[in-house]
Amino acid sequence: MSEPRIIVALDYSDKKQALDLVNQLDKTCCRVKVGKELFTAAGPQLVEQLMMLGFEVFLDLKFHDIPNTVAQACKVAANLGVWMVNVHASGGKKMLLAARDALPPGKTKLIAVTVLTSLDQFALNEIGWYRAPMDIATQLASLTRDCGLDGIVCSAAEAAIIRKNIPQKNFWLVTPGIRPADSAQHDQARVTTPKVAILNGADYLVIGRPITQSANPMATLQQLNHEILSAYSAIN
Ligand code: C5P
User: Fold this and answer.
1) Residue 178 DSSP class
2) Radius of gyration of the chain (CA)
3) Contact, 87 vs 96, CB < 8 A?
4) Is 7 in the pocket of ligand 1 (CB under 6 A)?
5) 20 to 30 A from 84, CA-CA: which of 33, 56, 179, 203?
6) CA-nearest residue, atom 3 of ligand 1
């Protein structure tokens, strides 16, 4: 298949569950994401193990700290050999630039989270962010692009507007909150099908439970990849 567009979220609290799942997946059909839960439980050894199995790893630790600390953490992630790592765009320009400069060029990709989709207008007001979530996300996306990062994490609903503002195809939009049309929403408030996400301009789709809780994870992955391929043929 062409380049895999699905990043399977390995949201587990132990290594065994994560390995049981990846052993059912074909490494040419997806990439995998290790987030705070699994990394805290299983650490860099598991990341190395996943890479030895041939999977490209998105280390989703969303670094947010002073520029030097974030830069050093990104450097260690790159030394591990991960495919992609991320930070919070709201850490500011100096932090974004320091993180970018800490990574060897052309190796590990660096993307930034704009506004967490769990934050609505009320929650943003509580932390003193009074503009609309979409406006803040658009501004943080532009800042991320101007700082020379490789892309952002945003909701698939935001992707269409952000893609209009930032048409460069080498600036990736990575979107969680994806559900096949017939699948359970779980705790995601706003969900988008893989097809709509691609039509909105998303480049990579983060998908967890529809695959990890499927009775046949590989078959579900293949169905989702098929939907993505047909969406691509509709726009190309
Ligand atoms: O199981 P599900 O497909 O909902 O998993 C989504 C993954 O994307 C989780 O790992 C979650 O942490 C991540 N994520 C999200 N919403 C965001 C950012 C990340 O669901 N705004």
Assistant:
1) B
2) 17
3) yes
4) no
5) 179
6) 208
- Tell me which residue of 170, 235, 230, 177 sits closest to 205, measured CA to CA: 177
Regarding the domain delimited by 6-235, which CATH topology (the fold level of the hierarchy) does it fall under?
TIM Barrel (3.20.20)
pLDDT tens string 178-210: 998 877 777 776 789 999 999 999 999 999 999
- Residues facing 207 on adjacent strands: 8
Q: What is the pLDDT of residue 1?
A: 53
pLDDT of residue 138: 96
Going from the Cα of 206 to the center of ligand 1, the distance in angstroms, rounded, reads 7
Q: Where are the domains of the chain?
A: 6-235
Taking only the tens place, the pLDDT of each residue in 147-174 is 999 999 999 989 999 999 999 999 999 9
Phi, psi (rounded to 5 degrees) for 204: -135, 140
- Which of 118, 190, 206 has most ligand 1 atoms within 8 Å of its beta carbon, as the pocket-test mutant? 206
